[in-house]
Amino acid sequence: MTETTPAAPPVAAKKPHTFTHHGVTIEDPYNWLRDLGYPEVKDAEVLAHLDAENAWFEARMAPLQPTVETLLTEMRGRIKEADKSVPQKDGDWLYWIEYEEGAEYKKWWRRPVSGGPDELILNEVALAEGKEYFRLGALSVSSDGRLLAWAVDDNGSERFTARIKVIATGEELPDVIPGTLSALVWAADDRALVYSLANAQWRTDNARLHWLGTPVESDVELYHEDDEGFRVSAGLSANDEWLVISTGDHETSEVRLVPAADPLAEPLLVRARAVGVEYDVDVRGDTLFIHTNDTHENFRLATAPLANPGEWTTLIEGTDDFYLTGFDLFRDFYVVEGRVRGLDRIEVRYYDDPARIVPIAFPEASYEASLGDNPEWAMDKLRVSYESMTSPASVYDYHVADGRLELLKTQEIPSGYDASLYETARLEIAARDGTAVPVSVVWRKGREAGGPLYLYGYGAYGIAIGPGFSTTRLSLIDRGFAYAIAHIRGGDDLGRRWYKAGKLEQRTNTFNDFVDVAKGLIAEGFTEAGKIAIAGGSAGGELMGAVINSDPELWGAVAAHVPFVDVLSTMLDEELPLTPGEWPEWGNPIEDKAAFELIRSYSPYDQVRAQAYPPMLVTAGLNDPRVTYWEPAKWVAKLRELKTDSNELLLKTNMGAGHGGKSGRFEGLRETAEEFAFILAQLQVSA
């Protein structure tokens, strides 16, 4: 131990702070960890505490560095470092992305369909040089193929700066738009860009028009949203004729259409917002296609005449069996995507024959499949992505005329991979209220019963966690772990009802499902109490916090990444970036006492108490606008104060990154290797 190596974990000071709502006063002695100058964090005491936690993390992880390096070498060995995507035609060009050997970031290329040299249109490697963090946001080529617009975030704050260049010469135009948080949409025959700015609260309440060659200060606001909980976005219709400006929150939406050639024209409102009604729109000729949940929670597809956009006629009925998640229009046919009993389904349908339905067939019983990049209006084959728990990611072209899947590329694993060595299963485990919860599990054949298990969960915002493939998880599976994904309520794995059953007043179903899945996997012989490593991030980090409070004895190790754990304080602070837009998901504890009491009853930070907790690794991002850094910092401070055990508790704050952790494909891999090394050590599994 050197003089600079800490001998003990940092102990955060306690400073008096209280707040009162609905007649209830709550003490929060770690509130001082929130720098009041956020998003700039300059408070010396706050920074000193985070630095001390990072030093403790480094000290405790130092003995595990050989394991981290071993795991990192394994994980990197499964990545084809010099790799490129399958080229896709868009107009007169074929586009693809490419990684060079050892590169953290990619390069964007194209070449003429008619033949000619390859052309580098954007070099992320060069743009990221010298930066601790780099993330490419929007990227958009003008319809004539001459100009490129792109946006970059170089500190993790998710505030992007947009730029434009002439592709052929590389000349950057003087047009620079700081503070964007949106797509970049070409309009007015490539003479203008439509974008959204993030306001001071990190909300996109606008759609703006920038005429090339004019000062940004003179940009025109095409639409402004007054509801502070709504977010605005813009895109193009499939035929590129209409600018689609959408606004909404987690349960309500509203869409306007503007001619792309004349973006200053009077917007056409499709249908006025109604609380609880979500819809999105595309256009073919004089007909609107509307995907909406107005008559069925699993959505229907309707049409309407452009001349009367609010007159919706059902094209595909909403049903309990088929969860209609989206659609794509093409010139000669359209495609719907959805899920049946939690499994992805893609159907080709025809405008002139509604009864003609052609599902795309896939070879396995459990898988993930989705449409890939299909940029053209007139398509005769569709780019499709496919993977499963045991099958690496594959890219296909689906030939519409004869229903044939043509394999174009399968993810290559240089160090080797034999799918026949692994088994997978999709189980159903009964939750305490009798609800059957799906679980996807993969393990190596010959694994001993009762061994270690890694259980992942999310369960929020209607986001499904599919049974996909991962090369990194092989480092655990090959060491005797089973790897399981709990498809708990709060996600929409089994349809919209599944999502609703895990939000607002039913939020605790999410936590109960996760615990009951773990107990069910123990009963099935997959593992034993204390041998389960659990992980989740963001809202999944909230899940981690809830289940360690309720059932700490089940878990042998916990990884909570950028965890949303100070739920009550955050939902009470309408000045925070996300809060107003989150009330439809969690409830509004400012106005609703019942919501206040419910959130307080499960908020992980508020429910920390004097008991033994499992070993924990917690991560945060100083510039994170989604889950602010002080949530995990406060949580860890309170855990250090109250927990009665001597188990490991580590907090790592990325001081130059945000919600997604470090950027770059290998830097991100190192963080996964650190998590796995921590888990192996805590469960005493040989590295």
Automatic annotation (TrEMBL):
Boundaries of every Peptidase S9A N-terminal domain copy: 10-410
Domain of life where this protein originates: Bacteria
GO BP terms in the entry: proteolysis
Pfam family, one: Peptidase_S9_N
This protein's record includes keyword Mitochondrion: no
Family: Belongs to the peptidase S9A family.
Name by which UniProt lists this protein: Peptidase S9
